[in-house]
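cron nightly-structures :: item 1 of 1
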Amino acid sequence: MGAKEGFLQFQREVPVRRDPKERIGDYKEIYEPFPAEKLNHQAARCMDCGVPFCHQGCPLGNVIPEFNDAVYQQNWREAIQILRSTNNFPEFTGRICPAPCEASCVLGINKDPVTIELIEKNIAEKAYELGLIQANPPQTRTGKHVAIIGSGPAGLAAADQLNQAGHEVTVFEKDAKPGGLLRYGIPDFKLEKWVIDRRIELMKQEGVIFICNSDVGFNIKAENILRNFDAVVLATGAQQPRALKIKGSDLKGVHFAMEFLGKQNQVVGGEIEENPISAKGKNVIVIGGGDTGSDCIGTSNRHGAASITQLELLPKPPKQRTVLNPWPEWPMTLKTSSSHEEGVERVFSILTKEFIGNEQGEVTGLKLVDIEWMEKDGRMTFEELEGTERIIPCDLAFIAIGYSGPAQNGLLEAFGVEVMENTLPKSKKFQSTNSKVFLSGDMRRGQSLVVWAISEGREAAVQVDEYLMGSSNLPQKDESYFHVEDEIHGMD
């Protein structure tokens, strides 16, 4: 490593966020540019540790110490080559990944970890700036045709890898533009869509075909896809939202989070003029304490909500690790997002009981009660606290408590794929019960992270390549990964 004592010389620094009062007036990226000299210092903090646990923490297996050192040495060509060897889209993960690699950083034992996500983003952007990322079509073609259904991170990664292997790849997307969750699920203040457009254009130049407004199973028959392509990858995500089964959840003004976020992204992208769900002047309740709930907060603030309250069933986490949560475990600490900074009341250990409505069938309030968590028979459970039940004003509610699996729209059945009791499709090494059809991303593994989806797309591509050609030169994980995964997906 170029600076073996950099972690002793420099403190962790991250980009400055624009003032909340300014940024809630637009949907632009919230961070100020990070100075080049400071980035060099951050790369220098990566120490010459004996076992770089960050490798294990990253689902993609990014070779982090090596690209950090390349940044410290100002060798941007080497940095992007190292990063691109494991990650197809560092410009995405460098903006929206929760950075499990940083949670695994050895510095985290007694210091702040290396700013790996920040460095990754800057490698990608510097590479584009210097012309180090260019269209690179395959030199030869195999004559095999592959259909990718879904253009989210898993579908795009599979398409990119299979195209590099020389196959003719066509991506089908039901919406007007490619990107899936990246485009229609993540707000622009976290990921501006020009970043996606830039990558899609590059993939087109390399030979990948994108067909949008194509809802396979509806306006395009699955049987036609099966007949015209040598292999199919299903990567349509886990779109079935988990319902909140309480009285009044069918009232007007109670929505699943993605109904709101998706429409707002269409507004920002110029696809529609206005969001049919408006938070302006309303008392907004967000149920769920994860990233999707946070996105609803940021978007509601930009609408001009009168008040925003976020409800979380779990207890409030500590600000720092406790002795019961040591490194290298995932830090179960309080996360404060940019959306939280912009204005919200956060309530923990709270149970929603019933939505209250008026005669017009509109939501007007939410009945809730405080709870106390405790361990019982070796499991965590909770009890309602007597005398704490109350009703709070609610004009608009967003349910953001996760996703149960793939959309139940008949797509899997149309492709002859068997489904397990938990609604996830059966698979072995990404191959479904129909040998010609492969599965990838959240559709296969359930709700997860964008970085996992990219990893899934890469691994699925290897299996498709082997199916078509008998062997594959694409990079892949070792067999132990597949043994565990096959057990999970009912095909061991």
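cron nightly-structures :: done
The first helix runs from residue 6 to 9.
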